[in-house]
Structures are given as C-alpha cells and as structure tokens.
Amino acid sequence: MVVRMRANRSKTGKRRSHQGLVAARAARCSCGALRLPHRACAECGMYRGKVVIDVVARAKRQARRDKRREKDLRESGQASQAKQEDKMPTAT
Ligand SMILES: [Zn+2]
C-alpha cells in the first residue's frame, strides 16, 4: 500500500510501469494449429511428440452431452417455448 498524500504522478507512473499487459505468445504445433507454449494442442491432443488428450473420445463425449441436453430441454417443453419466442415479432 502507498501513502495517499505522498503519491505524485511521477511515482504513480513509475509504479504502474510494470503493469502493462503482454500479448500471449503462440507456438505452432506439428499439426499446423496455433497453440500456447507448454500446453497440449487442442486440435490434435499432442504434447512433446506424444498424444496426451484423446481428441476423438472427447468430441464423442461432447456430442453425447449436447444430444442429451437437447433431449432434456425438449422433454421439459422449454425448447418449444424458446422457438415460439423467436418466431414472435419484436415490439417497437
Ligand atoms: Zn496439434
């Protein structure tokens, strides 16, 4: 914490000179996609030459979840309500 009465513009500027944001660096994966350094690739699931994420299984899992969520929404009747709201002309 700083003493309020002692803060002048010069001191504030010097303190904040280290607070600048730095753009995230991107590395190119062997599959050609951009990825963060020291992170597994989201496209192919490779890290340091090894497959660490099963991308196909993950996609299947996500598809199954989406399907189930859609089904639950349809059964609860909210999906039809949402569609009706879309069809309704907007006021004003
Ligand atoms: Zn990759």
From TrEMBL:
GO terms for biological process: translation. Keywords: Ribonucleoprotein, Ribosomal protein. GO terms for molecular function: structural constituent of ribosome. Residues 83-92 have a biased composition (Basic and acidic residues). Transmembrane segments: none annotated. One of its GO terms (cellular component) is large ribosomal subunit. This is Large ribosomal subunit protein bL32. The gene is rpmF.
